[in-house]
Amino acid sequence: MGVMSCSRKDCENIMCDTYVQSVGYICSDCKSEFKEYLQKNGLNPTTEGQINKELEKFMATSKDTYTDGNETTVDDFFNQRTR
After folding, report:
1. Contacts of residue 10, Cβ cutoff 8 Å, sequence gap at least 6
2. CA of 32: how far to CAs of 28, 55, 65, in Å?
3. Are 34 and 57 in contact (CB under 8 A)?
4. What's phi and psi for 2, nearest 5 deg?
5. Quick one: how far is CA 81 from the chain centroid?
6. Which pTM does this prediction carry?
7. CA dihedral for 21, 25, 29, 30, sign (positive or negative)
8. Cα end-to-end distance, the chain, whole Å
9. Tens digits of per-residue pLDDT, 1-59?
10. What's the alpha-carbon Rg for the chain, to the nearest Å?
């Protein structure tokens, strides 16, 4: 494992050992979040090209976009903020 910075927007992790040519380095936190991104969006890429395409989109998002905060519905989100 080298001291390579994750290429994802707003990610400050530096211990990355995974490199994908089209996106650069990706840390283990972002790899886990990518799996959540796929699941939450109902995506199931089955070819390298499909995975690469989704990974490129994902890497352009800010870190913790898909894991930040507790899971909720839109209605519950608004209800918690309504007086």
Report:
1. 62, 63, 64
2. 6, 12, 12
3. no
4. -105, 175
5. 27
6. 0.76
7. negative
8. 51
9. 457 999 999 999 998 989 999 999 999 999 999 998 999 899 999 999 999 999 999 99
10. 15
Tokens of residue 27, six digits: 């840390």
| Cβ-defined contacts of 10-15 (< 8 Å, 24+) | 10/62, 10/63, 10/64, 11/63, 12/63
Domain boundaries, the chain: 1-70
Q: Are 7 and 40 in contact (CB under 8 A)?
A: no
Sheet strands (E) in the chain:
18-20, 24-26
CB 11, CB 30: distance < 8 Å: yes
| pLDDT tens sequence across 28-41 | 999 999 998 999 89
- 3-class SS shares of the chain: helix, strand, coil, % to 5: 35, 10, 55
